[in-house]
Amino acid sequence: MRLFTAIRLFSLLAGTVQTASTDTANWFDKPFGMFQINLREIDVDMDVNATADFIQDVGGILANYPTKLDFQIINPRLQDRASGDLVQDSLDAARARGLRLLARVDFSKVQRQVAEAHPEWLYISPNGTWQNHTNDLVSVCPSDAWYQERIFDILDEITDWYDLDGFFVNWAGFNENDYFHVYHGVCHCASCKKAWDEHKNGKELPYGPEDANYREWKTWSDGVMDEWTRRVRNFIAQKLPHAGLILGASSDILFYEANNAIHREIWHHATSETVIRLKSERPDTPVLVNCASFLDHAYRITSEDPHHFAQYHVQAISRGANPSTYIIGVPSTIPCPGFEQAGEIIRFHRANADVYSGMPSSALTALVMPPGSQVGEPHYQTEALSEYKGLYKAMQELHMPFDIVDHRYIVDMAETGDLGRYRVIVLPRIGSLYDEDAEALDTWVATEGTVIVTGAIRTDDNDVPQLQSLPASKMRENITDTQELTYEWKNGSTGLFKELGYAPFAPPEYIYGNIQIDERAVGIGSYGKGKAVLFTAPVGWGYRETGLSVFRDLFELVLFEVGAEEPLPFNFAPQMEVTVNTSGNNDHTLN
Ligand SMILES: *[C@@H]1O[C@H](CO)[C@@H](O)[C@H](O)[C@H]1NC(C)=O
Ligand SMILES: *[C@@H]1O[C@H](CO)[C@@H](O)[C@H](O)[C@H]1NC(C)=O
Ligand SMILES: *[C@@H]1O[C@H](CO)[C@@H](O)[C@H](O)[C@H]1NC(C)=O
Ligand SMILES: *[C@@H]1O[C@H](CO)[C@@H](O)[C@H](O)[C@H]1NC(C)=O
Ligand SMILES: *[C@@H]1O[C@H](CO)[C@@H](O)[C@H](O)[C@H]1NC(C)=O
Ligand SMILES: *[C@@H]1O[C@H](CO)[C@@H](O)[C@H](O)[C@H]1NC(C)=O
Q: Could you say which ligand is closest to the alpha carbon of residue 130?
């Protein structure tokens, strides 16, 4: 019997644009489309031919495999399949149609019986407990033998048996959060404690983000994952040289899952935003956007709204990512009202592969994603996020092409020279920067750039702002009620606009007396060959929270003074999204 499953081996069929080709370039460096099916245990009887036909029409598979490894569990339902091997059947069906097959594996959890046999593999919370899930699954930890050794046995078995076109490793990491979005803390398993002690001799292993050593632990644990990712990548490259790996920041194909969840605010730009960010960091690496046809986590049986589903696809292709349609179970068992539109977009992308091949961004402005602005990130700050989103919206509505740069990549991009692509970098309510980021930004400004800071930036014990390039020498006041900051300005700097002073606002009979005071709304100064601009109030937050377009107007006026000179002017309705790309013959417009 050849049926499969590592602990939870999800694999998937990928429908790609090209048929298996013989050229030596990576297949994933050209535009492609994908269809991902997360097969459930009960789907082992899937008709692979019908599914492959369906995928071919529109534009993957959980299988449990026949393992020799004693720590794996075979899906008992596989016995009901004639061949006993869903993966091989799928591979045959894919090959017969010129489709490629990628395997999706998830090593983040093990079944209870495996957990009980190998408790040393498990995630252990600071209070000593396991992380239990539905269906008796238990989270594991990357530090111990499961990740470091057994996974390589599994990959060895799979790659021996199947000539797959790629791997997608899902949810690999330290499992601080579980599927219920519950935060469990930093893993305290014996291997983590030992490795941390060796790394940091004697410093306390933190419990969570509130602890002093957490940042250091985060850097260390990211390093453990990077090293593991590198090993997986090398292993797969050796066994299946033509296969692409989707796993983490250094993989062959960068990945984003476009999805929607209860308890999460809808942000309709999320797909564009993420693709731009990934492309800014690694311009030459293909990006895959997996568009979920269902609501996340506990509500996966609920279909996504067809228009929102289409929006994921259309934003993906317009930003130069490869679109993937993602469903649960054998096609047509769970209704998906968005298939029609998604298929249309995927086919459009396939028919215009030339256009979608290599159209690097020509944006001269970068908006930095501030620390703590991503949902789920420790120290998640709604204020920084609101400022960032307000500016994102403003710039998009002004049709100003811009890239997104994650604050974590500032130093890297300065080192590679990628920061030099930009004329203007906007820091939305950045709060506290790492010292090396601040240094890199100051250096960049001095050599030619214009930095724009809106809202708060950290000041030291003497109230001196963290960026030396700023036109302010000192923060004078931090008025928390109105979120204003007042500064002492450097000689030679100039101001734009003045503030109105405070006056009574109630009862209505007394609403008068606000007069213009001698406080700048915006300060501008030179630094080396560059410029720095400081907004004394969070203008993006104002736009986001109140919707008053005067905030956007103010931002626009300042950009008019100091912004980059864009090659093309636009005169569209604000809600139209525009991307500008220089290579090829076409400028690309997305409605
Ligand atoms: C799929 O179709 C091919 C060609 O008709 C056939 O040989 C093969 O047995 C089918 N596969 C399965 C698993 O039914
Ligand atoms: C997880 O399950 C194990 C085994 O049933 C149980 O002993 C333990 O208390 C559970 N842990 C948590 C945190 O629920
Ligand atoms: C241990 O931590 C987990 C996760 O935070 C929590 O669910 C559990 O109640 C805690 N158990 C004890 C005994 O404190
Ligand atoms: C085109 O440029 C925009 C920025 O204007 C960028 O976000 C996008 O990824 C580029 N599109 C493609 C298809 O590469
Ligand atoms: C201003 O004060 C608030 C509230 O105390 C604080 O959170 C914030 O960090 C301060 N901002 C600056 C720039 O010091
Ligand atoms: C700025 O100019 C004022 C007035 O001319 C002068 O008193 C002050 O010393 C100058 N400050 C610096 C840092 O140069």
A: 2
Cα–Cα–Cα angle for 336, 136, 208, nearest 5°? 95
Mean pLDDT of the chain: 87
Whether 145 has a pLDDT exceeding 50, the answer reads yes
Q: Token pair of 228, please?
A: 């593991």
- Residue ranges matching CATH 3.40.50.880 in the chain: 365-566
Any idea which ligand is nearest the CA of 493? 6
pTM reported for the whole predicted model: 0.86
Query: What is the architecture, at CATH level 2, of domain 9-107+142-177+212-351?
Result: Alpha-Beta Barrel (3.20)
Listed in order, the ranges of the chain carrying CATH 3.20.20.80 are 9-107+142-177+212-351
What is the greatest pairwise CA distance in the chain? 85
Q: State the number of CA atoms in the 13 A half-sphere of 487 facing the CB.
A: 30
For residue 525, what are the β-bridge partners?
Answer: 532
pLDDT tens-digit readout, 5-15: 333 333 334 43
321 lines ligand 4 (CB under 6 A): no
Contact by Cβ (8 Å): 63, 90: yes
State yes or no: pLDDT of 122 exceeds 70.
yes
- Protein residues with CB under 6 Å of any ligand 5 atom: 456, 459, 478, 480, 485
**Structure confidence by residue, pLDDT tens digits, 58-91:** 654 444 455 656 677 788 888 888 998 888 999 9
Neighbour tally for 180: CB within 10 Å = 11
Q: Which atom of ligand 4 is nearest to the CA of 578?
A: 5
The upper half-sphere exposure of residue 299, i.e. CA atoms within 13 Å in the direction of its Cβ, equals 14
Rounded-to-integer distance, Cα 291 and Cα 257, Å = 6
Structure tokens at 498: 């003045």
Residue range 518-544: mean pLDDT, rounded: 96
Q: Is residue 473 helix, strand or coil?
A: strand
Ligand showing the shortest atom-to-Cα distance for residue 289: 4
**Closest CA relative to residue 492, chosen from 522, 515, 526, 518:** 526
| Closest C-alpha residue for ligand 3 atom 4 | 184
Atom of ligand 4 nearest to the CA of 321: 13
Please say whether the beta carbons of 188 and 197 come within 8 A.
no
**Using CA atoms, how far apart are residues 281 and 403, in angstroms rounded to an integer?**
10
Task: Tell me which residue has its CA closest to atom 2 in ligand 4.
Answer: 361
β strands within 96-252, DSSP E: 100-106, 109-111, 137-139, 166-170, 244-246
- CA distances, 311 to each of 262, 538, 586, 590 (Å): 18, 30, 22, 11
Interatomic CA distance for residues 391 and 256, integer angstroms: 23
Tell me the CATH number for domain 365-566. 3.40.50.880
User: Does ligand 1 have an atom closer than 6 angstroms to the CB of 304?
Assistant: no
Cβ neighbour number for residue 283 with a 10 Å cutoff:
14
The residues, any chain, with a CB within 8 Å of residue 163's CB and separated by 6 or more, are 91, 240
Closest CA to 228 of 139, 122, 144: 144
Cα 272 to averaged position of ligand 4 atoms, centre (Å): 9
Identify residue 142 by its one-letter amino acid code. Answer: P
**CB-neighbour burial class of residue 131 (10 A; exposed 0-12, middle 13-18, buried 19+):** buried
